Amino acid sequence: MGIFKRPRLKSKNRKSSQPEMPEGLWQKCPACNEVIHEMDLKQALRVCPKCDHHFMLGSRERIESIADEGSFEEFDANLVSVNPLGFANYESKIEKQREVSGLNDAVVTGRIKVRGNTAIIAVMDFKFFAGSMGSVVGEKITRAVEAATKEKVPVIVVCASSGARMQEGMLSLMQMAKTSGALARHHDAGQGYIAVLTHPTTGGVTASFATLGDVILAEPKCMIGFAGPRVVKETTHQNLPDGFQTAEFMLEHGLVDRIVERSAMRPTLARLIAFFSGKGNPLSADA
Description:
Layout: E1 26-28, E2 35-37, H1 38-43, H2 59-66, E3 73-75, H3 90-101, E4 107-114, E5 117-124, H4 135-151, E6 155-161, H5 169-188, E7 193-201, H6 203-206, E8 215-218, H7 229-236, H8 247-252, E9 258-259, H9 262-276
Parallel strand pairs: 5-6, 6-7, 7-8, 8-9
Antiparallel strand pairs: 1-2, 3-4, 4-5
Helix pairs in contact: 4-5
Enzyme class: transferase
Family: Belongs to the AccD/PCCB family.
Protein name: Acetyl-coenzyme A carboxylase carboxyl transferase subunit beta
């Protein structure tokens, strides 16, 4: 009987009359909804040409945007996380993160030159486990700082993190003290440390090495804080100020020294590296 017949379902594989858009060719700005060609976005260092929104930048792209061409020498590329607490499915999750991101963990470290001056750099990458800080992240940053101290050169840490990695428990929290101790010895040796805060910089990273810089730079409108705004509001039962936990708010309240557009980050870092190396004035555009 016809009334009991199921209606025919439309096939998902049916060819549409509309031409298909190649995946990944266009990006939509989350701030202004501008649709941007991926090539244009890459050439602009992943900054929206319409509203200046700073998209997240991968660690390799970040290093390429800062370092002199061909000068980057990577450290400790093969350090990988283990599962010290026997956390369920942690190994498989880490392996999946490696496949998706092309990284072994959430930070890339090494030696660079910026306009001819040497520095040691550590760049966190949010696309690996949300930039969370586990034992490998803490170890690699600590080794990078120690290398900078030994070589008597400045160290740069570019931060982008959701905080400590819960799958490693107390071992993750220990990295806060370990990295801070290395930076204290670096400071005692008279060497400079430049922290660059990008979106987002939160949790144990904010509570340790991210906010210990001799100079603290931040990208525009990036989120900086320990806990998220919703958690803070629910804990304090107070309405938060406008722009709470943005780079602009932190600049106004003294946590950040300067907000730097991504296009200006390389020359800014070049002047600071030259200054900490005793070769220039950070206020000079020619440094």
